[in-house]
Amino acid sequence: MSSPRHVLITGGCGFFGAWICKRLIDDGDQVTVVDVSLFTKRWEMLMTPAEIAKITFIQANIDETSFVDAVVAAKPDAIIHLAGVQMPTCKANPVLGAKVNVIGTLHVFEAAKAIAATGAVVPKIVYASSAAVFGPDAEYGEQAVGDMSAPRPTSHYGAYKLCGEFAAKAYFVSNGIPSVGLRPLTVYGPGRDMGLTSFPSRSVAASIMGQKFDIPFSGPTVYIHIREIADIFVQCARDVSVHDAKVYTIGGDTVDTKTFVQELTKLVPEAADLITISGGDLPIASKIDDAQLRKDYPQLIRLPLAAGLTESVAMYKSMKEMGTLTV
Question: Count of CB atoms within 10 A of residue 59's CB?
């Protein structure tokens, strides 16, 4: 594996983007972020002003063709595609969800195709899919879902992510654009403040702030710390050996919400009285097999839930002391 000289990140001002930017800057890579607007709150949580100054920012709407021109002009060696709207927004406004999550993804691949047409090396694309391409546990019985399991999404969000995976395959077959799609489920850690699966992370912040907070689902889900996610995206982006359109499920610790809160209470005892749980299961399979990902990338870091929560609580407490912690 070799490190790309220049990585372009769509949606780089978001939760995943901030942690991936930090990792790339730490490793000495050149980073360009394309986002709908410059929002640095999450960057400031992780990086110094000097580190942030190393990031080149381009304002563009991913669902507009001008986005393609902006990416072509940047000529990155790799593209990490994170831009998208979350499950509640897709449910409330399916057309907007399709514009951003489907048309936006097509524009990323169109940009890579246009870069190749200039004679430059086609950039590899690593994009955020989701475990939401799978249906609820009842669809799979006792089996864990993996890379080759049948997708059965029951949400607009999951359907859009599945469309992106099929489009990625079509672009590889037609245009030779290599890609890796990654399917996380409940990613937690500082900076996670949007989407249905953000509630566990927000409950950690709330308990440290002494605020009552309800997590609106009670069933099991797969928890993976954001530092693991950043490591996975970066290692996949650096792997120049990929000449295919691959898709990987991402595993972690599968626990129900009660167990998550119990683990949190070990670190923040006040959580026992502050955090409540309502609702049922998430409409996404909770038993995830990521054996192929771990086989192909054996150097990936792994943070068990207890370790990830310990890191998160320490960082949240530091943010509270600085007056920057919000729920």
Answer: 13
Q: Report the candidate in 233, 222, 302, 290 with the shortest Cα–Cα distance to residue 259.
A: 222
CB under 8 Å to 45, separation ≥6 — which residues? Answer: 18, 190, 191, 319, 324
Residue matched to tokens 């304002």: 59
CATH superfamily of 6-187+224-252+283-300: NAD(P)-binding Rossmann-like Domain (3.40.50.720)
51, 22 in Cβ contact below 8 A? yes
Please give the C-alpha separations between residue 18 and each of 23, 41, 43, 51, 268, in angstroms, as whole numbers: 9, 9, 5, 12, 26
Domain boundaries, the chain: 6-187+224-252+283-300
Q: Tokens in use for 130?
A: 């989701």
pLDDT in tens, 264-290: 999 999 999 999 999 999 999 999 999
Q: Is the pLDDT of residue 141 over 90?
A: no
Q: How many other β-carbons are positioned within 10 Å of the β-carbon of residue 234?
A: 23
Instruction: Tell me how many helices (H) and strands (E) the chain has.
Output: 14, 12
What does the pLDDT look like over 116-137, one tens digit per residue?
A: 999 998 999 999 999 999 999 9
